[in-house]
Amino acid sequence: MHVPTGRTRLLAGLADPEDSIVNSSPWYWLLLLPVLMLVISLTNLIFLRRPSLDSEIFTESVVVLLPVRNEQENIPQLIQSLKTQMGIRDLTFNFLDDNSSDQTVNLIEEHIDGDPRFTLTFGAQLPEDWLGKPFALQQAFEASDSQVVVVIDADVRLKADALVSAITLMRSRQFSFISAYPKQIAITWAERLIQPLLQWSWMSSVPLRIAERSHNPAFAVANGQFFIADRAALQAVGAFECVKMEIVDDIALARALLKNGFLGTVIDGSRIAMCRMYQSWPELREGYSKSLRVAFGSWVGSAFAITLLMLSGIAPLLLGLGGYAIIVANRAICARATGGRIVDALLHPLSILLLTYLIIRSWKMRGRTQWKGRLV
Questions:
Q1: Torsion sign over Cα 82, 83, 88, 94
Q2: What is the C-alpha separation between 50 and 48, in angstroms, rounded?
Q3: Claim to verify: residue 37 and residue 163 sit in the same structural domain
Q4: The domain containing residue 95 runs over which residues?
Q5: For a disulfide at 246, which of 141, 205, 231, 252, Cβ 3.0-4.6 Å?
């Protein structure tokens, strides 16, 4: 009698779950992590906070901090979307140019076109004990005095009610900070494989309604693309000086706020904001090579993360179609909740393999990665 082995048995399992390579019950522990993540995703799908689209006029003062360095491709559309913001009586936009060498400054001046809500200042030379973005943000923060502070990346585009709806949610729930997670625009295959993992990583691992009531920094979820905070809370932690040497400054800032007794959360910002972080595979590869090793803290942390990625996104395939279905369902739920492409969930195992490569590459490139012309 022929007994199928190796690849033959695995393919047979994918074709017919009854003949899976690991049909015996002891192997079903492989589903524990994927099923847990599926439950968390379903719960977050129901309870994920979303800004109201019919907010009233907001009367507190609001400043939007916009540190820019060599952003000439983004400036025209960025300013256009900022000018459409409505529903806030006292709103200002503070551009701080971080020693750009392209046409960023000229384009800012051209597209501001005398609008009194906008200011443009020029950053000082970068000190040795600061990274560029935190230093630029600190300078812009110190030049303002508004009660609510918003940070927007140059590649973010806002709907007209984005600011008022997100800030109103923060105030109504008495949070000290929120991160309104924009819809991630992904066009190339590399983007479509990797970018949805940003939302998947927290949608399927952090029970958000529990996290928003906890000061545990392990629950910190944030995205610096669109981050809002109460000025007093920022001042209490030293503002951006507390993350002066942090490459992943958004998560670090959220952790600092939580440690100091402030509460905050991530909200679905896909209906009010969008962002295309990277335009190509080389750009995406370099961007993640800069940040992934820092995100996981150490080689041990990275190895642990890779193990979890394998257990949640690859190992369940050994259980055939049932395991694959749970993997895809989890990703599809995350896409549904955050404005992503549901069909891309079908390629989640490939996404996991590519992300694993990027984590390893991030460590191999340590000390050699440049971003915006600076070594990080």
A1: positive
A2: 6
A3: no
A4: 58-279
A5: 252
